[in-house]
Amino acid sequence: MASSVLNLFKSCRPFTSIRFSSLPKSQFRIQFPLRPGKETQSRRCFTTLSSLTDGGASISGGKELWLHNTMSRKKEMFKPKVEGKVGMYVCGVTAYDLSHIGHARVYVTFDVLLRYLKHLGYEVSYVRNFTDVDDKIIARANELGEDPISLSRRFCEEFNRDMEQLQCLDPSVQPRVSDHIPQIIDLIKQILDNGYAYKVDGDIYFSVDKFPTYGKLSGRKLEDNRAGERVAVDTRKKHPADFALWKTAKEGEPFWESPWGRGRPGWHIECSAMSAAYLGYSFDIHGGGMDLVFPHHENEIAQSCAACDSSNISYWIHNGFVTVDSEKMSKSLGNFFTIRQVIDLYHPLALRLFLMGTHYRSPINYSDFLLESASERIFYIYQTLHDCESVLGEKDSTFGNDSVPSDILTTINTFHSEFVASMSDDLLTPVTLAAMSEPLKTINDLIHTRKGKKQARREESLKALETTIRDVLTILGLMPTSYSEVLEQLKEKALKRAGLEEEDVLQRVQERTDARKNKEYERSDAIRKDLASVGIALMDSPEGTTWRPAIPLALQEAVTTTP
């Protein structure tokens, strides 16, 4: 076994021998603090995340971060269990198809949180799992005549490609269910030994009646809970809400040996086992889409507490749905758009901006108009910064704050204050993005207006503004590798949506130029309008006419006339 895995478990006894799908990037030691005054029970608990090293990184400026906790139903100031360290687990995809933009919203949301925590100086151990053993995976594999585990691994790889396109940082570890069957079996044993589960013909069910606080996360009463998710009601259960921890193998399904015979895990048990294996029973943040509050996360809490009474997650964080016509986007409803379908027509960073343009806990309605708006906005951001870069050129651009005019410093400091205030208030990304408008406008004024071009210490001002905006874009995951490159990519996507080649646009521009020379102004206006109707805006300047992507005029008119 790799040395980093041994270091991970050096102060606790793992369930059984373990095979990892990937390894954490950082090594950390684990210890398990016993609850003071609590009588020791016959439970074997995993452990809790402890400090990485003595000292640790200091948190940037002592900034406060407030996060909405689903458990308390209010915003709470974030305070990690271990100073300077954060353990975060986010439920991953069930990998049987390409992921849709509802999935993209989940992982962009938690990528923003990850990046902001890192910005504040925390060292984050981020775990995001793959479900590769599930009824849906088995059904899809049978349709395609493919091995379920192989099919799932293929779609795990496709998911990672999508995340790379969206500039989501890699988690510290991405465990898969099929690699953690021994841990799952050992956890089920603990739950059985502690009297919270029962056996029925080789199946193991969790008994919700034995867990008095069941429903505390979702606020649901036990009598209101539906029987389960992803499975038919089983009349053998003691209570309709009891859920499967282990399922007896069926013909043609993958299975593993267990003390109860051949079978496979239920849906919920996997995350309890894998989160505890990497972060311990007690860690800081557990997240996912709001559809997971019940039953998945409710059942996770019950399982983990049944196995270890010291189990505790400090913050439960859930993002809102992506909707289509006010209905949740999902594969089961068939009203979804895959990430691949969207980024075939729109730049991945435009999609990321679209998802960040609404607060993560609010629903966001998918529409072409909003995606076009995001695409136009991000083009404006990058074009402004590219123009700034061009003006600065290769000159020495190292300046001190004392060389930047006071009005520019005021603009920068105001933007920075708004950034900190909004991001620290439960990640208000729409406010952060709106706050960027003023420094961007200032850059454009300095570059393009007569007054701006004459301003003293213009280059110092431009450099300071560009650096500030670039730093914020980096924290938000919106910084491209090259302004010029991403601008060309955005234009290529716009041409594809318009059904045009650039040569077509340039030909129309030349026709319009000729028409204007001949004073054929109606024809000139018609050409401009024709191009605008498909999202190509013409920009006239003393140097000539250029074009940029824009919201198609036809789409703007449709939105304007919609009641």
UniProtKB/TrEMBL annotation:
<dbReference type="GO" id="GO:0009507">
    <property type="term" value="C:chloroplast"/>
</dbReference>
<dbReference type="GO" id="GO:0046872">
    <property type="term" value="F:metal ion binding"/>
</dbReference>
<dbReference type="InterPro" id="IPR032678">
    <property type="entry name" value="tRNA-synt_1_cat_dom"/>
</dbReference>
<protein>
    <recommendedName>
        <fullName>cysteine--tRNA ligase</fullName>
        <ecNumber>6.1.1.16</ecNumber>
    </recommendedName>
</protein>
<keyword id="KW-0030">Aminoacyl-tRNA synthetase</keyword>
<dbReference type="InterPro" id="IPR056411">
    <property type="entry name" value="CysS_C"/>
</dbReference>
<keyword id="KW-0934">Plastid</keyword>
<dbReference type="InterPro" id="IPR024909">
    <property type="entry name" value="Cys-tRNA/MSH_ligase"/>
</dbReference>
<dbReference type="GO" id="GO:0005739">
    <property type="term" value="C:mitochondrion"/>
</dbReference>
<keyword id="KW-0809">Transit peptide</keyword>
<feature type="domain" description="Cysteinyl-tRNA ligase anticodon binding">
    <location>
        <begin position="510"/>
        <end position="548"/>
    </location>
</feature>
<keyword id="KW-0547">Nucleotide-binding</keyword>
<keyword id="KW-0479">Metal-binding</keyword>
<keyword id="KW-0648">Protein biosynthesis</keyword>
<feature type="domain" description="tRNA synthetases class I catalytic">
    <location>
        <begin position="78"/>
        <end position="375"/>
    </location>
</feature>
<dbReference type="Pfam" id="PF01406">
    <property type="entry name" value="tRNA-synt_1e"/>
</dbReference>
<keyword id="KW-0150">Chloroplast</keyword>
<dbReference type="InterPro" id="IPR015803">
    <property type="entry name" value="Cys-tRNA-ligase"/>
</dbReference>
<dbReference type="GO" id="GO:0005524">
    <property type="term" value="F:ATP binding"/>
</dbReference>
<keyword id="KW-0436">Ligase</keyword>
<dbReference type="Pfam" id="PF23493">
    <property type="entry name" value="CysS_C"/>
</dbReference>
<dbReference type="InterPro" id="IPR009080">
    <property type="entry name" value="tRNAsynth_Ia_anticodon-bd"/>
</dbReference>
<dbReference type="GO" id="GO:0006423">
    <property type="term" value="P:cysteinyl-tRNA aminoacylation"/>
</dbReference>
<dbReference type="GO" id="GO:0004817">
    <property type="term" value="F:cysteine-tRNA ligase activity"/>
</dbReference>
<keyword id="KW-0862">Zinc</keyword>
<comment type="similarity">
    <text>Belongs to the class-I aminoacyl-tRNA synthetase family.</text>
</comment>
<dbReference type="InterPro" id="IPR014729">
    <property type="entry name" value="Rossmann-like_a/b/a_fold"/>
</dbReference>
<keyword id="KW-0496">Mitochondrion</keyword>
<keyword id="KW-0067">ATP-binding</keyword>
